Input
Amino acid sequence: YKGIIMYCTRCGQQIEEGARYCPYCGEKIYKEEYTYDQAPIYSRSIPIAIILSIVTFGIYGLYWLYCLASDVNTLTGEEDSSGFKVLILSIITLGLYELYWLYKVGERLSDFQTYQGEMVDSYRALVYLILGIFGLNIVARALIQNDLNKYAYDS
Output
């Protein structure tokens, strides 16, 4: 799609190359092919992820953390922290690294929304951090997943 002028299939307005949503009407823009670097993210059911995290005594929660980190990297196009790095450092530091990661993810998602021309919640990073500090990491993960689901290609 490099150098190609793109138009929204719904409203007909010209849109920026690489946009995932039309800034005029909100229609989702689909690409026919994906390279490894542009692999789409898929939505996850937040209630099922929470229930599985509780039922498996946190084991699924670790997998969910890995997936969240990978999906944020895919969405933002940055390889700040791989899912494996976030998982291992969070375990080694007994969750302290996850607090740092929650804050950085909040900043990255806000920056991504700004880049997309959307309204931005300026306190997102702080909210994720405070939830993590009070032991509500699962709530912060649910909020992150909710943000990611908005940009998922299968939602």
Remarks:
- The first helix runs from residue 46 to 55.
